[in-house]
Specification:
Elements (H helix, E strand, L loop, with lengths): L1 E6 L8 H12 L3 E6 L6 H10 L4 E4 L12 E2 L1 H6 L4 E3 L6 E3 L1 H12 L8 E5 L3 H12 L3 E5 L3 H10 L4 E3 L12 E4 L24 E4 L8 H8 L3 E3 L1 H17 L5 H11 L1
Parallel strand pairs: 1-2, 1-3, 4-6, 7-8, 7-10, 8-9, 10-11, 11-12
Antiparallel strand pairs: 3-5, 5-6
The structure holds NADP nicotinamide-adenine-dinucleotide phosphate (NAP).
Length: 267
């Protein structure tokens, strides 16, 4: 039996176990997905222990995505983003990847949204914002990062080719943009009555991805849909980062439908 898992703290409410277990069941794989919650300062030790125990792959979540960088051999994407969310133990030393980046790109592709040469606005410059900004830029979009703390937006934009940065007062750019991603926690339960982007800037030619997945339908997505925009909820991003991790670990095409159903049943 192969063992995969999730390293985080806390991991109690993670949606990854049912999503990955659904994939094993759909393909008849002899595998299990378990959660590990080490102390905050024990990320590197946990990776070492996982390797010793023969664990095949680990996802990594808050607060360890940066901490594990030194415990693995990060690939180019993980190195540039500065965060690892997937570890593959099939190599020595284990390799570190950031499937959040591919998860963003695949969310747009799945919805028929092309990113090349498009103008994109990313709200937020935290962990999710970094992955989103790199994903959009790598897919050929020109990226503007707007963040409450302007210095954080500037620091992210300095790392992303061609990106610009500003405060939340630059969100009027959404009116002329093709793509908008909310990578802030604004709109998340229980404060789901608020939105990160004023509805006056939303329009029908926009594709909007909201990284928030609780609730599934945020106020931002509701207001964007009302304008005729293409809307993509945060569960797609969560799904496709898991799909990417599964495919990397197993070398097989992921049963996307089964994983999506399991994820949405939990949400
Ligand atoms: P984070 O690193 O803590 O960053 C939080 C971001 O939200 C920062 O840009 C912060 O701005 C901004 N923010 C927080 N409160 C705000 C407010 N009241 N007004 C304006 N901006 C505010 O968190 P994260 O890990 O990036 O996660 C952000 C969101 O993405 C969360 O809702 C998380 O659940 C979601 N997420 C989804 C996925 C997925 O797969 N769907 C993956 C990762 C994260 P400052 O820099 O000014 O503080």
């Amino acid at each position: 039996m192969q063992v995969f898992g999730l390293l985080g703290n806390p991991v109690e409410h993670s949606l990854s176990p049912p999503m990955h277990e659904a994939a094993y069941e759909a393909l008849g794989l002899d595998a299990r997905y378990v959660t590990f919650e080490p102390d905050r300062d024990a990320a590197a030790a946990a990776v070492e222990s996982a390797e010793t125990l023969g664990i095949a792959g680990l996802n990594v979540t808050i607060p360890f995505k940066r901490d594990v960088l030194d415990a693995v051999e990060p690939d180019g994407v993980a190195r540039r983003v500065g965060a690892v969310n997937t570890i593959d133990f099939s190599a020595t030393p284990p390799t570190g990847h950031n499937t959040d980046v591919a998860g963003v790109e695949r969310s747009f592709t799945h919805h028929g949204v092309a990113l090349e040469d498009r103008d994109a606005v990313v709200v937020g410059a935290g962990g999710a914002g970094r992955a989103v900004a790199f994903a959009l830029a790598d897919a050929g979009a020109s990226v503007h990062v707007a963040n409450r703390t302007v210095e954080r937006a500037e620091s992210l934009a300095a790392d992303v080719p061609g990106a610009t940065a500003g405060g939340l007062d630059t969100l009027d750019r959404v009116a002329d943009a093709d793509v908008l991603v909310n990578a802030t926690s604004v709109g998340m339960e229980p404060d789901d009555g608020v939105t990160p982007v004023d509805a006056e800037y939303l329009h029908g030619d926009l594709a909007v991805l909201d990284a928030v997945y609780a609730p599934i339908e945020t106020r931002l997505l509701r207001e964007a849909a009302a304008e005729g925009a293409t809307t993509i909820d945060g569960a797609w991003m969560l799904l496709f980062q898991g799909v990417e991790a599964f495919e990397r670990w197993t070398g097989r095409d992921a049963p996307v439908e089964a994983m999506n159903e399991a994820l949405r049943a939990e949400l």
